[in-house]
Amino acid sequence: LAEGLQALAQEPAITQDGCEVPVYANGGLLADIAPSIQSGADGIGLYRTEVPFMIRDRFPGEEEQSEIYREALMSFNPRPVTLRTLDVGGDKALPYFPVVEDNPFLGWRGIRITLDHPEIFLTQLRAMLRASQGLTNLHILFPMISSLGELKDALQLLQRARDELLDEQHVIPLPKVGVMVEVPSAVYLAEALARRVDFLSVGTNDLVQYLLAVDRNNARVADLYNALHPAVLHALAHAARGAHQAGKPISVCGEMAADPASVILLLGMEIDALSVNVASLSRVKWVIRSFSRARARELLTQCMTMEDPAAIRALLNNALVQAG
Ligand code: PEP
Ligand code: MG
């Protein structure tokens, strides 16, 4: 089986009824790039830029960041590389930027920090834009957006970074811009958010945590953390409809996208692309190639009427076994 999956790596991820659902890799280090290419990734769907920040003892400067981003962009160009802006706070701390709070997951996290520190944000955005000179594949993704106001402010700073660079005589292509749907409010704003950007990307790791009020890292409540919970499935379907009503694509980049049973449901919801850890790439491609969208839609419809996540998983596992 392992050999079969290996051979599958370079095959396109197309359903049995001909829908292409690209499978991208998640990464955060330049060391992740070569394995992603070898594993047949269609691009990078989530580059966690906080990782290079975490392994330093100070904020990396514009030049230093730009070199890292350029290497990531060049290795996949013209295939997309999605650079997420700094997402610290919550469970991710920078040793040189301590944030101490009672409720870190409900506190100063992700875009909230970078909007409060435009100098950090502008440096990063300038570095990303400069890295994209002569290339066509830069996608910028904003984490932890919970309101339209935050998106407006983030877009304004992005515009400012680009204007500065144009004034400095750089030739900067227009990047594609996306918003992470990982806070429940963003699910209900999906259509409005999507109208203002090029794509949405669902972060199920945080979305499940916030929807179910279950800490994603607390072993004591781990059995309550379940991406197949009916509320999660309804939220995802709602977000997908919102994005498509706005005429924009929506992908999933949380761990749920690496779970074969969940992939069937995501196909049924017409999610446009998946982004997964490198180790899961060929398995996810196998699921996509083994199902038609029509069959996935049928299974989704059935699962949407069910109440018990364990029964939903059993039904999907059965479908996977039947598929081979
Ligand atoms: C997520 O929340 O699902 C996600 C992809 O981001 P992270 O795991 O980095 O919070
Ligand atoms: Mg997240």
From TrEMBL:
Source organism, top-level taxon: Bacteria
Subcellular localization, as worded in the UniProt entry: Cytoplasm
Family from the record: Belongs to the PEP-utilizing enzyme family.
Annotated protein name in UniProt: phosphoenolpyruvate--protein phosphotransferase
Species of origin: Ectothiorhodospira magna
